[in-house]
């Protein structure tokens, strides 16, 4: 299990990001920033994001989506050879709480968060 690093933009011209290699059962501290997942493998990978403040089954109103079932988490398919950018504030109903589980990632994927 790995914890995804969060980088807080501080106005510097240069800030270094240390990606974390995903293990399949990872997590990060809740954030409203941008989650980046880099899939360097040869096949698509589907990850699921689920905050520890979401109950199952849960329904919540999500801006732009209306009333949605959140208890199974939010799934994102990361295409092979692509860096996916996920705006966490846009899926806040799925990532509610203190810690967010990120499952489904493989060793071909690295991730980081920028706030």
Write a structural description.
By secondary structure, the protein is mostly beta strands. The protein has a single domain, classed as Hypothetical Protein Tm1070, Chain: A (Sandwich). It has no helices and eleven strands. Strands 1, 2, 4, 9 and 11 form a five-stranded mixed sheet that branches. A four-stranded antiparallel sheet has the order 3-10-5-8, with no helix packed on it. It has a two-stranded antiparallel sheet with strand order 6-7. The radius of gyration is 14 Å and the shape is globular. The chain starts with 5 loop residues before the first strand and ends with a strand. The model has no long low-confidence stretch (mean pLDDT 89).
What string, H for helix and E for strand, traces the elements in order? EEEEEEEEEEE
Question: What's the oligomerization state?
Answer: single chain
- In whole angstroms, the N-to-C terminal distance is 22 Å
Strand content: over 45%
| Integer-rounded radius of gyration | 14 Å
Query: What name is given to the CATH topology?
Result: Hypothetical Protein Tm1070, Chain: A
Q: Give the rounded overall mean pLDDT.
A: 89
What is the CATH-assigned architecture?
A: Sandwich
Question: What's the helix count?
Answer: 0
| Poorly predicted parts | none
- Counting structural domains, the number is 1
Structural class: mainly beta
The counted number of beta strands is 11
| Major pleated sheet | 5 strands, mixed
Helical residues, percent: under 10%
Question: Top keywords for this entry?
Answer:
five-stranded mixed sheet, Hypothetical Protein Tm1070, Chain: A, 115 residues, 11 strands, mainly beta, 0% helix
């Amino acid at each position: 299990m790995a914890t995804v690093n969060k980088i807080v933009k501080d106005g510097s011209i240069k800030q270094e990001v240390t990606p974390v290699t995903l293990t399949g059962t990872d997590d990060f501290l809740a954030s409203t920033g941008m989650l980046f997942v880099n899939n360097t493998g040869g096949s698509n990978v589907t990850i699921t994001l689920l905050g520890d403040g979401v109950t199952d089954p849960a329904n919540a109103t999500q801006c732009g989506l209306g009333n949605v079932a959140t208890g199974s988490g939010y799934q994102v398919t990361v295409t092979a050879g692509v860096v996916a950018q996920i705006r966490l504030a846009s899926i806040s109903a799925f990532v509610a709480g203190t810690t967010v589980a990120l499952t489904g990632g493989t060793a071909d994927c690295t991730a980081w968060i920028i706030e």
